Model the fold of this input.
Amino acid sequence: MKSKLLLVVALVLILGLSSVSVAAGQTIFSNDVNETEAREAALYQIERSKLRMPGWNKAALGDLVTYYAPDNTKSAYEFTVINDDKEVGFVLVSARKDWMPVLEHSSGEAPSKHLSKAVEHAIAKGYASQDDASQTRLIYWGALSYSVQLGEQLKEEGTVIHLPTTRIIPMPEMVELQMEEERAKAAWARHSESIGSTISEALSSIFSEKPAMAAMVNREPIITYMPQTIDWVELDGVPLWYQHSSSCACCDEYSGGADDYPDCAGTADDPWDDWDGCSCIAGAMIVGYDYYGVSEDDETLIDDCHNYMNTNDEGETNPIYFSGGIEDVFDLYNVSCDATNDYLVSWNDIKGEIDAERPFMLSFSGHSQTGVGYEFDTEDEDYRKIWIHTTWYSPRTDVIDFGNWSAACMTKVEVD
Done:
């Protein structure tokens, strides 16, 4: 009996519960998410996504990778999704309970897989030395912001290296994501209830030798509730164009002797940097949407957007040119449209545009992407996801949680 009691204590220590009852009706609450809770949330996301991501059926989780906020507190946990010994995606879980449980998920490659490339870039550009390579700190402050900081120069400048593109970007001093704290805590409470059920099952198995015991010892949470109510809407016909600063799939190599626009439009060399710009690519995907009748190739439309959206040679675009630039490109192809920028983004805005079969541009953290769909749980109003084309990586659709940004601009486009 003594050994069984010790095992009970061990189970509680293994779980690392974040809220501990200290007296009847009194609980100490922690905002931190422990590893067991994070894995439970990631596994639950796999269950919610396996119908639209067939490769996730019977998938498991890889090792946990930790990201930090600018203030050096934990911000997110990354799990690679593995099926048949192959990596089939990733899930990014919040490390704090005032943010929604699952921040992002995708069938694409996990952000941390680009770490070695980012470190090599930092060393090659003189931002860090070889000695700094083992002192990396992964940073995350909202959707798609996964970055790394190493070396004293980046720290002094307050900049980081963006993992997907290896571009040097500024890091904010503080983070206040547009997520409703009470909604987030309620969502985490539901996960805690599931873990609580798992504990009860595991404790009973101590005496009845049920299979649940082995799962608990291996720290693989048991999902005790499965969603049957997930629904999603995705636009068909939005091109999935992308660009990578180290492997340009949708851009023309920089050439100092290249012709200016419009002579450079298309396959000719551009006079600007190899990176055309995320806003140009996101705008081009909207213009090239099948239902809008503009059949130009990707390189031409991206160059058109680069010019009319006043994107500079480094690929940076001021938001004040988003809507007018897109209107000008449509006008170039004799298509009339009305484009507007909205700086107060609501879930009804997202849902309304997709339901009206209109892709939109969503910009935050210095990055623009194309919104192509949404996902929701008909019995859980807190589960609200946006499907996006990120404008980098190979063709794929990523999913982010609604409000996973500090401030955002939504560019709506309505074609007459």
User: Anything to note?
Assistant: The chain has a mean pLDDT of 84. Residues 322 and 339 are 8 Å apart (CA to CA). Residues 60-170 form one domain. The first helix runs from residue 2 to 15.
